[in-house]
Amino acid sequence: MNKNKYLFIILSFGMLLAESQDEISPTFSDFQISSERYLTDEKGNIMMYVNIWGHVNAPGHHLVYEGIDMATMLSMVGGPRSGANLKKVRIYREAPDSDGKLQYQLNLQKFIQSGNRSEFIKIKPNDTIIIPEKITSVILTKVGTVNTFLGLFNLYFQLVK
To answer: Which helix (H) or strand (E) covers residue 104, if one does?
Structure first.
């Protein structure tokens, strides 16, 4: 019984440690700015590339219209997946803004509740938008795996007795 308690504590600590690694923000000191900031399509519309990572239906490198907002961007990538943490959406700039900022955090949950787009940040070329997954979603998706390991450990301890 005592061994199972320690095993459970070790597995729980490992999952928390893995989750805390996602919260570490990178620092940018030396970066390569892309040569393609803006493009035009065949109709003359100004286009730009942005990156969207994380818990969305179609993450990747997307060509979008200049002036796109976050709601439209999320729609283009199929929306957030179930379990997305819309309170902690991060935007990383390729190059610092005029005020020197490279990172922004958005709470899109406020937009979903009110429809107010006033807190949206203008999307710029080669921005990287990260939609994280809620810790509860991570735990719930890993329950089956943890349950299997615990069952195997329990079987092992029963056979050892």
So the answer is: strand 103-106
Q: Tell me: pLDDT of 3 over 70.
A: no
Residue matched to tokens 């787009």? 117
Contact assessment for residue 22 and residue 40, using Cβ atoms and an 8 Å cutoff? no
Would you tell me how many other CB atoms lie within 10 Å of the CB of residue 11? 15
Name the residue with tokens 């000191």.
Answer: 29
**Residue matched to tokens 């079987």:** 155
Q: What is the dihedral of CA 45, 76, 128, 80, to 10 degrees?
A: 160
Run of H or E residues at 44: none
- What structural domains and CATH numbers belong to the chain? 35-135 (3.10.560.10)
For the stretch 59-84, pLDDT in tens is 999 999 999 999 999 999 999 999 99
Identify the sign of the CA torsion 114, 120, 78, 101: negative
Residues contacting 65, CB < 8 A, separation 6+: 45, 46, 47, 48
Closest CA to 76 of 36, 25, 137, 123: 123
Q: Does the pTM of the predicted model rise above 0.85?
A: no
Counts of helices then strands in the chain (DSSP H, E): 4, 6
Read off the tokens for 106.
Answer: 């958005």
